[in-house]
Amino acid sequence: MKKPQKVLAEGEALTAQLILSLRTQGVTDPLVLAAIERTPRDLFTPELFKARSWEDSALPIACGQTISQPYIVGLMTQALTLEPRARVLEIGTGSGYQTAVLARLSRLVYTVERYRTLMREAEARFDALQLTNVITRFGDGSRGWAEQAPFDRILVTAAAPEEPTTLLEQLKPSGVLVAPVGKGPVQKLCRYAGDGAGRFAMEVLCEVRFVPLLDGVAREQ
Q: How many domains are there within the chain?
């Protein structure tokens, strides 16, 4: 069923307002902004929070997880410096919102989710958006996806307690990995950029709050 024209117009106005907010906060890459603009956030938010879909804030989803703040989605995506032919590994599918943004900017997105319920719901959303370049996996994201490595880019949407060495080993020597790192309630958003010879320079982008990356845990719920 198509949405009423009034609802569509309101959604477009709220989306434009959100994009302007992201731009003023430093998310300036036009391709990243266009990908966010083309990804209807209300499709990824629970019914209870539909009216808040275009707010620049994190919102609760099932399984005690969250859909990230659009600013953080834009910042992390921009930090990846994606190229159209890139193969991207995402750790933590969640609602699928970040995945959908990545899919509009890269050739293939491999995404791992430890909650089967979230994975299935995200897959339905990818189908609805006709995103055919997303490959999902149910399992322990802390181990990455070694069979498909090496990846051009890796994005982690849960906080690693320390430098994610296992994931860095699955990154191309000239690749980029972006992940929140830290054990406390506040973590540092880190960008690891390869020099082509196997060495990775780390840059701290800002402080963030993410759910922890749990080793060895996958849940059927």
A: 1
